[in-house]
Automatic annotation (TrEMBL):
Stretches that traverse the bilayer: 14-35, 96-121, 128-153, 206-228, 295-318
Chief subcellular location: membrane
Name recorded for this polypeptide: Putative flippase
Cellular localisation: Cell membrane
Lineage top rank: taxon: Archaea
Gene Ontology cellular-component terms listed: plasma membrane
NCBIfam families in alphabetical order: flippase-like domain
Keywords from the UniProt entry: Cell membrane, Membrane, Transmembrane, Transmembrane helix
Gene: aglD
Pfam families in the record: LPG_synthase_TM
Species in which this protein is naturally found: Candidatus Nitrosocosmicus arcticus
Keyword Protein biosynthesis (UniProt): no
Membrane topology annotation: Multi-pass membrane protein
InterPro entries: L-PG_synthase/AglD
Length: 338
């Protein structure tokens, strides 16, 4: 791997954390990923209906989408896999987009709030540089999705007028127009779903359960690092590990590297070392003890789970007939607003 080429850490150094802690880190990560899949299943069942495919097919679809999410800059793209899965199961594109949007908002809401907490705690402890970096990244992310949520509940979102001209540079005018119309129709349906559910106590309850599942998933993300820290001289408790991994996640959203590689590791190191000076940024490559643990954590929480998610993606791609029912119209959505 590239991490062994650009750092002084060897495979033996990584293995020095111990087999049991490494496995526990991997198990904590898979628990987090499975909780996210459970949340997707819960949202599908509550917002769309009970008969949209089977439990395990929905779980595999979520894992497949997570592979795409984890192999693109800014953790984007997985929602397209989930929307494709739902539409092939007979769900209208707008309703499918609503479920995935709720997932994104749950992740963004929990992730950015935790990032704000981590950032302000760092600033209050004198770690001005890392704290300001975290807060600066979290603010526009939270603001954008909060605006989308509020705006879609009041007005329809449409693609900007220049989208057609841009699309015509790559495909024919007819196909471009059809594509734009399809996207706008899906956006219309999404906004209709938003207005139907926004302000409904039942929908707020469903979303609150999703938020709770997301928070528990983030706690397991923190645990995935905590179980490896026995070999680090600095004391790292559950709360610090929780805040550090939240900081790592928010830095990984920068559209610089695939899956936040490098950024996630640096964000974690910077937080637990109270980074406060630009001149300290390169010190990570000389901090062998902590770097061993951080790289071991990254392998256990990213690279190995990626293999499992890839298997789920291949399973999904090779089995195109997902639908268990002919149409979502035959279902009885639990979330139907009176």
């Amino acid at each position: 791997m590239l991490i062994f080429l650009f750092t002084p850490v060897s495979l033996n150094d990584v293995l020095s954390v111990g087999v049991v802690p490494f496995l526990l880190s991997f198990i904590a990560t898979m628990t987090r990923i499975f909780l996210q899949a459970i949340r997707f299943y819960y949202f599908v069942r509550k917002f769309i209906g009970k008969n949209i495919s089977s439990f395990w097919k929905i779980i595999f679809a979520r894992l497949a989408g997570e592979f795409v999410t984890q192999t693109t800059p800014s953790y984007i793209g997985g929602e397209l896999v989930r929307i494709a899965f739902l539409t092939k199961s007979g769900v209208p594109a707008g309703r499918a987009a609503w479920v995935t949007t709720m997932e994104i908002i749950a992740d963004v809401f929990v992730g950015t709030i935790l990032a704000f907490i981590a950032g302000f705690i760092a600033i209050s402890n004198g770690s001005l540089l890392i704290g300001l970096i975290i807060v600066t990244i979290a603010t526009p992310t939270f603001g954008f999705w909060f605006f989308i949520l509020i705006y879609s509940a009041k007005k329809n979102i449409q693609l900007p007028s220049f989208s057609l001209k841009l699309a015509r540079k790559f495909i024919s005018e007819q196909k471009a127009q059809q594509g734009i119309n399809s996207v706008n129709k899906a956006l219309d349906d999404l906004c209709i779903m938003s207005r139907e559910n926004f302000g409904s106590f039942k929908s707020v309850k469903i979303f609150s359960v999703g938020i709770a599942i997301t928070l528990v998933a983030f706690i397991f993300h923190g645990l995935s690092f905590l179980v490896l820290t026995h070999s680090v001289d600095t004391y790292i408790g559950l709360f610090l590990s929780f805040m550090a991994t939240s900081s790592s996640t928010i830095l990984g959203t920068l559209p610089i590297t695939i899956g936040g590689s490098g950024l996630a590791e640096w964000g974690l190191w910077g937080y637990i070392n109270h980074l406060n000076d630009i001149s300290q940024i390169g010190n990570i490559v000389h901090d062998n003890d902590q770097l061993n643990v951080i790289i071991a954590w990254r392998i256990a929480s990213y690279y190995i789970p990626l293999v499992i998610m890839w298997i789920a993606l291949m399973r999904l791609a090779l089995r195109p007939n997902y639908s268990k029912s002919n149409s979502p119209s035959s279902t009885t959505p639990d979330s139907k607003v009176d």
